[in-house]
Every structure is written in C-alpha cells, then in structure tokens.
Amino acid sequence: xxxxxxxxxxxxxxxxxxxxxxxxxxxxxxxxxxxxxxxxxxxxxxxxxxxxxxxxxxxxxxxxxxxxxxxxxxxxxxxxxxxxxxxxxxxxxxxxxxxxxxxxxxxxxxxxxxxxxxxxxxxxxxxxxxxxxxxxxxxxxxxxxxxxxxxxxxxxxxxxxxxxxxxxxxxxxxxxxxxxxxxxxxxxxxxxxxxxxxxxxxxxxxxxxxxxxxxxxxxxxxxxxxxxxxxxxxxxxxxxxxxxxxxxxxxxxxxxxxxxxxxxxxxxxxxxxxxxxxxxxxxxxxxxxxxxxxxxxxxxxxxxxxxxxxxxxxxxxxxxxxxxxxxxxxxxxxxxxxxxxxxxxxxxxxxxxxxxxxxxxxxxxxxxxxxxxxxxxxxxxxxxxxxxxxxxxx
Length: 394
Fold this sequence. Notes:
The chain is mainly alpha-helical. The protein has helices spanning 2-13, 15-34, 42-67, 75-92, 97-122, 126-145, 155-162, 176-202, 210-232, 239-257, 259-269, 271-276, 281-307, 318-328, 340-359, 364-393, and strands at residues 164-165, 237-238. Part of the binding-protein-dependent transport system for D-xylose. Probably responsible for the translocation of the substrate across the membrane.
C-alpha cells in the first residue's frame, strides 16, 4: 500500500510532465494504427528527423524566452534572413560553405543583440520588439535576395540538413555506427539518472521506488534502441540529429545547473523577488534574446541546407510552431516553468500530428485547425492545473 501511495504522489506531483508523455504515446499509437504502420517505418522516421529538426532547435531557444516571461514572434523571419545571408555568401559570392554558416551565425547574434537591447535596456515589451522584428527581418530577407530564391548550395553545406553518417563501422544490412552511438547515449542517460537519484536521496528528497526507477530506465532504453534500429536499417544517423542532440544536452545542463539558467527561472517566476535577490535582470534578458538569435541562425542554416535554397518566404509560421511546442510541452504562460525535454516532446507531438495527417491525406487547412485546438487545450490544461494547485494550498 505504501508503494502504491508513493507512486500516486509522484504521478500527482508530475501530472504535467507525465500527462504530456502519455499524450505523446497515445498520439503516436493512434497515427501508427491509422496509417497502417507507415508512420513508424524506417524511411518515414528518418524524414521526421529531417523535416522537424529546425522547429525543435527553435523550441529550445523559445523555451528559455518563455520561461523568462517573454515571447519572440520574429524567429521565423530570422530563419529566413540568416539562410539568405548564407546563400549570398556561398552561392552568389562563391565563398566556402563554412564561411556562409559563420556569416549566418554572426547575423543571428547581431539580431539577438539588437532585440535584446530594446527589450532589456530600453524596456519595450518583447512582444512589440519581436513583432517589429518579424516585419523588419522579413523585409531585409526580401532585399538581400532581391525577392528571388537563391540556389543551389554546395554539397558540403547540404550535408548539414540532409546528410547521414553510415558505414563508418561496417554493417550487415544495418548501420552499426548508429546503434553504437545510441547505445552510448542510453548508458549515459542511465548513469545520469542514477546519479540524480542518489543526489536526491542524499538530500532526503522523495524518489520513486527502485523497481519503478529500473523499469523507467529499461523502457527508455527499449524505445531509444528501437528508434536507433529503425534509423540504422534506413539511411543511418542523420547529421542534424547529432547537432540537435548536442544542443539538447547543452541547454538542459544550462537551464538546470548554470547561474544563467537559475536566473531565467527566477525572473519568469517572480520578477520583483529576483530583483530584490540581486539578479541582474537587464543582463539576463539581454542574454535570453542573444541566445534566441543564435539558435534561430542555427535553425536557418539547417532549414536552408535541407531546402537547398534560400527563399523569401522561408520560415513562415515557424515561430508559432516553436511557441506551440513549448506550451504543449509544459511551459507556463506566465513564465517561470518549463523544461527542455518537455519542449522537445511538445515539438514531437506537433511533428507526429503533421506527418501523420499528411500521410492520411488530410487537407492543410484541417491540419491547422487541429494544431490550433491542441495548443488551446494544452494552455487550458496548464491554467486549470494552476487553479487546482492554488485551491489545494489555500
């Protein structure tokens, strides 16, 4: 009875994260059934990684923006502008591919400096600054490209968003290298989870029973290695997945264990308390938008690489997809709450729904209706959950 009670308490305390993980499993299962398994086929899973990686990259930066109590409506336009700058440098001017990538990143950082200055030091709300940025950077994209698409990129640049690593360790109808990399990742996850559990025990914090902990590790390992097998039997390990994984690991560490991360949560949770505690609010807000500009430039490189072109209309609605991923993944509308893994799950839910409906031949307009309803329900659940928590404490 004690074990059952502890399990119930853990589920209750983590209803938001548990609920979104369960919803993701249900949505995947539903679309897998409706598409006769095509959703989970090796080729389609590879395409899912390539098609939605840039949204997940944007969601990482957007999560930090939202946790800090802001919003950024300009990221889609920044994706278009940074991709356009890379194309001008590489395609039109003939510089090496890496020079174009560096130019795109530099442009993203400058955009972050520009928007961070107006938000942090002038005091204009981020909604207004980034709304202006959405128009400004879209117009600059049209000027840079002379309102025409620019292509093609050289093969090396295209490998960023479309390339695969395979055959490095040989294989027998599958890519061994992919399985090894994912196996190492599973071991790393298990070790990190065990160390985290021991740390909680040392501070007398509640943890799940050991059998439940072990079951969770085994389940995660099984799902991850199944996904690895699907990739290994298709085209191998997507290069962009390595980039995305590195960003997820780095920003999870930053948000959980760095001073900057703690200050972002403090500002979003209670601005007045953060100021009284000595948090340098202006500096943190500036860094939030500098970081968003950097990640938007990475997404711009990935998207232009996958498209093999810089287009004036690139990145349209990307900001809404990134925002939706964060809110569906558990970020609070009022700031101060949200995690990188949660945003990734939210982004994957959007990706699976879009891909599944496309496989079923659902009209694009209907897809937009479904996404809008899912976002509304996710935010509504967040508000309801807060009211329920407030009623319990009052």
